Structures are given as structure tokens and as C-alpha cells.
From TrEMBL:
The lineage of its organism: Bacteria, Pseudomonadati, Pseudomonadota, Betaproteobacteria, Burkholderiales. Residues 1-23 form the signal peptide. Belongs to the leucine-binding protein family. This is Leucine-binding protein domain-containing protein. CDD domains: PBP1_ABC_ligand_binding-like. Residues 33-375 form the Leucine-binding protein domain. It holds the Pfam family Peripla_BP_6. Transmembrane segments: none annotated. Keywords: Signal. It comes from the Bacteria.
Length: 385
């Protein structure tokens, strides 16, 4: 009898501990888990933010249709920061302190996440970063922050390396932005230039927010450059390629994967015929992406699907990584357990991008890159043959 009572007492204590952990953990109840999203849903960067949010919505709808995470349904609260750091801080504070979320599915762009990082770190809540992968997110590793993507320096290094192999013995030019993003572009480019002994005939830096590149592109032509690394974000690269076409100097152009959205290929038009990028996100038309495309068809409206792009893929993939870690924590879900499980993820297949993985020392998932070429006629990109 004593042994039965002891076993009963142990069982009750274990149940109480599980209930206590759930009760104490912010954003978790017996039936629900609250998640937060902070990203640009207004202004020009909304092209990225809205698409990302749609990918997260697909992941949430899919999980809820399957019964939630270990029996708890998921609820997403989204904040629009307009890509303004001060608004990011306000939104993050609201999500953490007022909405009492359990985890972030996105922490917006580079300057925005930098501005709010002290609050995010102090909260200890799991935070996924699939829109920006600036070094401050993972060097050194932050216990609760996980970047899903590719270091921009390494991405540019990979892009220029592949283009240099494809177009050997060409004279090169680089145009980059006067901020950390531009510095990463220059670093990646310059490493390839040194290793492959590229002949760089023009190197220019433009001011963030600049919209007229006639002077810079004229200098590219006058320098005799036969290939260009265009280090803008999105609109700047479109303007540069169109200006090259306007002055009759159509040369191979490399752009960062940030530009790999259908709107970019469409707006470049015929000027984009020799535009290249690298990416780790599957092409919408590829066999690998069919499963995710079917999920978007199932869980999004026709209007929403029209606003989806590569950032819908990364939003879904990062959220699936978060959910996988949460699932492994069982009913006694905590932020600490989720952070620890995220740090153990290995080669996670999401069907949206090449496999995701982290370690305790490395919180940057650096998926495999592949070379893409713009296809203006189809308003998209395709694998470079």
C-alpha cells in the first residue's frame, strides 16, 4: 500500500510540475500558444513583410489543422513596424509585455532588429530571424535568437564566384550602399576579387535611399566594366539594370537574393536578361516546392497567394523550425526548452528551402546556395543552365 501511495504522490507531483511550468511560461495556457510577428506591412518593404507573414500564416493554419502543438492551438499576433526602428521597439515591447507572446516568428530587418535586440535578448523568448541575417544576430550566438538564411557576405561571395566562373576574364564593377548591408556586399565581392584576381575597374558607394543612378552607371560604362555587382536592396538594383539598358551597356549583373521576387524580374523587363542571383529558397515552379505551393493553395486566398514570394517560403520554413522545437518539448512547453531544441536541429526539411540546421555555437542556418538567372518574359527567376 505504501508503495502505491508513493507512486501516486510522485505522479501527482509530476503532473503539478508540468502544470506549474505551463502556468508560469508566458504565452502558454492549457489550450493555446500565442506567437508574435514584427515586420513591415506598409511602405515599400511591405513586399517582403506581407509575403513573410503569409508564410507564417500557412505554418500556423497547417499546425492548427493537425491539432496544434501537443494539443495546444496557435494564435498569431502581427505588428507592423513600417521598417522604422522606433516602431519596431514599440511593437516588440507590446508583444512581450502586453500581448505576452511565447515566441517571435520574425523580428523584422537589420536596423529594426538591432534597435530592439536588447528587449528581445532580455525576454529570453525564442526569436526567429528569416528576413535579415546580419552578424549581430549570431556572432556570438544569442541564446534565444536564430537566423534562417545566409550570411550576406558569403552569399555575395558565392554569387560573384559563380558569375566569375561563368564569365571568365571580365572587367568588374561594384556599386554598394553606404551602410552595413553595403559593407557586407563589398566584403564578399572583394574576397572573390582577391582570390580569383578579378580586374576591378570601378568601385562606387551610393547613399541609402538614392533613386537616381545615372551617374554611377555612366562611370561603369566609361570604366570599361564587363560585369557588375549591383549591391542595392530591391528598387536600386532595378534602376541600375534599366539604366544600363538605356545607355546601351547591357552586361551581366549580380544582385543579392533580397531581389529574387517576381516583381523585381517584372519591373526590370528586358533589362534583366543577364541578371543573376543566388538563393537557398526553392523556385515556385520546382518539384521541391510543390508541397508548399499546395499548402498555400489550401490555406491562403487567391488575393493572398498573389502577394506571396520567396519570403513566404522563408517565413514558413523558419516557423516550421520553431514548431519542430516546440513539439519536442512536449506538454511542459517553455522558452528555455524551445531554445535548447532549436540549437539541436539538424538538416530539417521543410519543403520550402534547402535543409535548416543549428548548433549551440552557430545560430545561423546557412542552407545550400544555387545560381539563378532572371527570366523577364515569365516575371520570375530560373536555374542558371
Amino acid at each position: 500500500m505504501n508503495s502505491q501511495l508513493t507512486a501516486l504522490a510522485i505522479g501527482l507531483l509530476a503532473a503539478a510540475a508540468t502544470f506549474s511550468a505551463a502556468a508560469q511560461q508566458q504565452g502558454v495556457t492549457d489550450t493555446e500558444i500565442v506567437l508574435g510577428d514584427i515586420l513591415p506591412l506598409s511602405g515599400p518593404p511591405a513586399l517582403l513583410g506581407v509575403a513573410h507573414n503569409l508564410g507564417v500564416k500557412v505554418a500556423v493554419a497547417e499546425a492548427n489543422a493537425a491539432g496544434g502543438i501537443n494539443g495546444r492551438k496557435l494564435r498569431l499576433i502581427t505588428e507592423d513596424d513600417g521598417y522604422v526602428p522606433s516602431r519596431t521597439i514599440q511593437g516588440v515591447r507590446k508583444l512581450v509585455n502586453s500581448d505576452k507572446i511565447f515566441a517571435f516568428t520574425s523580428i523584422s530587418g537589420t536596423a529594426q532588429s538591432q534597435a530592439a535586440m536588447s528587449i528581445i535578448k532580455q525576454s529570453g523568448l525564442p526569436a526567429m530571424a528569416p528576413i535579415t541575417t546580419y552578424e549581430g544576430l549570431y556572432k556570438p550566438a544569442i541564446k534565444n535568437v536564430f537566423a534562417v538564411g545566409y550570411d550576406m557576405r558569403e552569399a555575395v561571395y558565392g554569387l560573384v564566384s559563380m558569375m566569375a566562373d561563368r564569365y571568365p576574364n571580365k572587367k568588374w564593377a561594384v556599386i554598394s550602399q553606404d551602410d552595413e548591408y553595403g559593407e557586407n556586399v563589398r566584403d564578399g565581392f572583394e574576397r572573390v576579387a582577391k582570390e580569383k584576381k578579378l580586374q576591378v575597374v570601378s568601385s562606387q558607394i551610393f547613399k541609402k535611399g538614392q533613386s537616381d543612378f545615372s551617374s554611377e552607371i555612366l562611370k561603369v560604362k566609361q570604366s570599361g566594366a564587363e560585369a557588375l555587382m549591383a549591391g542595392g536592396v530591391l528598387g536600386e538594383n532595378i534602376t541600375m539594370t534599366k539604366e544600363l539598358e538605356r545607355i546601351g551597356h547591357k552586361i551581366p549583373v549580380g544582385v543579392t537574393y533580397v531581389s529574387r521576387v517576381p516583381a523585381s524580374a517584372k519591373m526590370m523587363g528586358s533589362a534583366g536578361e543577364n541578371v543573376y542571383t543566388v538563393d537557398y529558397v526553392y523556385l515556385e515552379s520546382s518539384p521541391e516546392a510543390k508541397g508548399f505551393m499546395d499548402k498555400m493553395e489550401k490555406y491562403l486566398t487567391a488575393e493572398e497567394r498573389g502577394r506571396a514570394n520567396r519570403y513566404s517560403f522563408t517565413g514558413y520554413a523558419a516557423t516550421r523550425a520553431l514548431f519542430t522545437a516546440m513539439e519536442r518539448c512536449g506538454k511542459a512547453l517553455t522558452a528555455d526548452c524551445t531554445n535548447a531544441e532549436l540549437a539541436k536541429l539538424k538538416n530539417l526539411e521543410t519543403g520550402a528551402m534547402t535543409p535548416i540546421g543549428f548548433t549551440a555555437e552557430n545560430h545561423l542556418a546557412a542552407p545550400k546556395l544555387f545560381l539563378l538567372k532572371a527570366d523577364p518574359a515569365a516575371s520570375t527567376y530560373k536555374l542558371a543552365q
